[in-house]
User: Fold this.
Amino acid sequence: MTKMQNRIDKRFAQLRREKRKAFIAFITAGDPNLSTTKKLVLALEKTASVDIIELGVPFSDPMADGPVIQAASLRALKNKTNLKKILMLVRDIRRSSSIPIALMSYYNPIFHLGIEHFVSQAVKSGVDGVIIPDLPPEEAGQFLNLAKKNSLALIFFVSPTSTKERIKLVSKLSTGFIYYVSLTGTTGQTLILPEKLLNNIRLVKKYTHKPICVGFGISNSKQVKKIAKVCDGVIVGSAIVKQIEHNLAKKNIVENIVKFVKNLSCPLKA
Assistant:
């Protein structure tokens, strides 16, 4: 059987040809509802120059998330958003969009669905990658094997505190891209751009040719453009989710979010 090329891999190949960097937008699925999430995904792809969508799976105990994304998860959970409904959402999005989609999920919802069943259904639905903050690469053997067989990217983290050994391990095992956490702690903190951050990203590049994308704490266009100079993609999450929260009661919520993201995402040249 011929192995299918993952949409994430295709997108980075395209970006390299076009000499551009990836802009990755994180939104919590089901915040404020799944219908709005679908509209946001389609609009962000079409009019905001977003290259990859990271869809957050809401969870009741999100250890890596700050208060902004925690609140979004609670709103989504109150709407009875769950992993099965999110996979159905992705399947629906695939009827009119080919944008690469990665799910950011804690291990618990995936475990309860069943790892094999999840991987199978995720691929059938059109999911391209999975990011699991509480699944370290040392314990991901079964998931890695299933993901590899199904051309599903499994994206791991490195951080400012990662040892050279951990960087080498993640560089070897991570597929799709490597997620560089720009600061220690949870999402939503303010990022200051010290020279150490830029040097750390250069260090990771010594061990891999895989794309390196930077996230956590990035909230304005100045930060996006500066970080894009030393990596392959920039991930913005809490800043977008905060805008969603501010626009919950507005009819033009999608238009307002697209306008905000467009200001961050255009253009990211290599």
User: Anything to note?
Assistant: The longest strand covers residues 22-28.
